[in-house]
Specification:
It catalyses: ATP + protein L-histidine = ADP + protein N-phospho-L-histidine. By secondary structure, the chain is α+β, with helices and mostly antiparallel strands. It contains 12 helices and 11 strands.
Length: 460
């Protein structure tokens, strides 16, 4: 590899700091939506192309035409001056004025000698003023005064002769390419028409993508897909829609098979546990039998926990529940356990979730806090896009290095907060699984109360 190749690769890998800053600055100001970016892809080249065309037209055509027209007008004025110098008598002036008006389309007046008016300020866009002044200076070479601003349809020119002043009025169109604005209007007008067509076309192309996004978000939140969803749009979008439908069907089929298998396993295991209970009941009462009955109860509780985790209420439909009623009911259960529970709810009270799973998620978090804390705070904020549930306690907390590990199924931690007396180790695992099935997540952090803070964020 040559030195130049090495430098090029190093430049591509680590661009200059100024270029990186410019790229970041430009990237932050670009729109994030596909519709807006597609419009920019159409508008920016169109504006650049029109700017180049307008510049070339102004620089070449407009200036060239104005130059030629101004040259012709100045040549006619120079011819009139030569005639005046050739026939200086007053009787000939009327004939000169007539010829200039009829043959040259110039209104002239021959006035007595005097001083020319002071120069007028040049206009901002002075292409005519500049070119006409240059031509008069080059062809006539006499003191002059021009006014290209006063009357928009006429150009006034005064030229000082030997013993008189020649005053000329010419139409602006004789010395200036005045129809250029028509080209600019046509260019802008056609661009607007093309832009409107592009906007209508893009809206039709973006709509299938938005429908596909909505269907994917609904499926990710555990909701049913829109009833009117079907692949539309371009071939690539249709292929993506068909791939999504097939993926959804495979996932639903696997979930149905898993649910059916779990139902069978649950029935068989419950039957065996029921036979154990009957056999223990026939044996009689003794300390050993009580221990065995407790083991059977623990097995029953663990079995229910495992099945609840594996099933995750995936078959439950989305419904509308009252946030205040649900949290107040869970808080009342926490108070029965001996904890002091406070509730604060902000925003809209109703929320669309899977009711049973949502209630189980909050119940697990509050029950987990009640086992290791005396004071618990439940705060719910229902905004426009997010539902945020925050549960703080004053318990012993969880070390920061273990806060991700406690979400693993069957993970055991010494004096772990995510284990109940049966030792299933699935409390927080079920919480995160339910949160993510709704499209959100749960995060553990330090609480201002001194214990653990569990925050659940669910998109609405």
């Amino acid at each position: 590899m040559t030195t130049i190749d090495a430098i090029r690769r190093e430049y591509e890998r680590y661009p200059p700091r100024g270029l990186r800053r410019l790229t970041r600055w430009f990237g932050k100001r670009l729109p994030t939506r596909l519709y807006a970016r597609a419009l920019l892809i159409i508008i920016i080249p169109m504006v650049l192309l029109q700017s180049v065309i307008a510049f070339v037209f102004m620089e070449r055509h407009w200036q060239t035409v104005t130059q030629r027209l101004s040259t012709a007008v100045t040549r006619d004025i120079a011819a009139v001056i030569d005639i005046i110098d050739t026939y200086p008598s007053d009787p000939a002036y009327d004939e000169i004025i007539r010829i200039a008006r009829q043959r040259l389309a110039l209104n002239i007046a021959i006035e007595p000698a005097g001083d020319l008016p002071p120069p007028r300020p040049k206009p901002f866009f002075s292409i005519l003023d500049q070119i006409l002044s240059e031509e008069i200076t080059r062809q006539i070479q006499r003191p002059f005064w021009i006014d290209t601003v006063g009357n928009s349809h006429l150009v006034e020119i005064r030229i000082q002769l030997d013993d008189k002043i020649l005053r000329v009025f010419a139409r602006r169109s004789q010395a200036y390419a005045s129809n250029t604005h028509i080209f600019l209007l046509w260019m802008v007008g056609t661009s607007m028409v093309l832009l409107i067509i592009a906007i209508l076309f893009l809206r039709g192309q973006i709509r299938p993508i938005l429908k596909l996004t909505q269907a994917a978000e609904s499926f990710g939140k555990g909701q049913r897909m829109p009833a009117d969803f079907r692949p539309r749009g371009a071939d690539e979008i249709r292929r993506a829609g068909l791939a999504f439908i097939k993926m959804r069907e495979r996932i639903e089929r696997q979930m149905e098979q898993r649910t059916a298998m779990l139902s069978g396993v649950s029935h068989d295991l419950r039957t065996i546990l029921t036979r154990f209970r009957l056999q223990l009941a026939l044996v009689g009462d003794s300390p050993e039998i009580e221990s065995l009955n407790k083991d059977v109860d623990d097995m029953q509780s663990m079995l229910d926990s495992y099945l609840s985790f594996a099933r995750n209420d995936a078959e439950e439909d989305v419904g509308t529940i009252s946030l205040s009623e649900t949290i107040d009911r869970i808080a009342a259960d926490g108070r029965l356990r001996g904890a002091t529970v406070s509730v604060a709810i902000e925003g809209e009270d109703t929320v669309r979730v899977r009711p049973t799973a949502f209630t189980r998620m909050i119940t697990n978090l509050v029950a987990n806090a009640c086992r290791y804390a005396e004071t618990i705070s439940i705060a719910a904020t229902h905004g426009n896009k997010w539902l945020i549930l925050t549960i703080d306690d004053d318990g012993t907390g969880i070390p920061s290095e273990a806060r991700e590990e406690v979400f693993r199924p069957f993970f055991r931690l010494d004096a772990a907060r995510n284990q109940d007396e049966s030792g299933s180790g699935l409390g927080l695992t079920i919480v995160r699984d339910i949160a993510r099935s709704h499209g959100g997540d749960v995060i553990l952090s330090d609480s201002p109360m001194g214990g653990l803070r569990a925050q659940v964020r669910l998109p609405i």
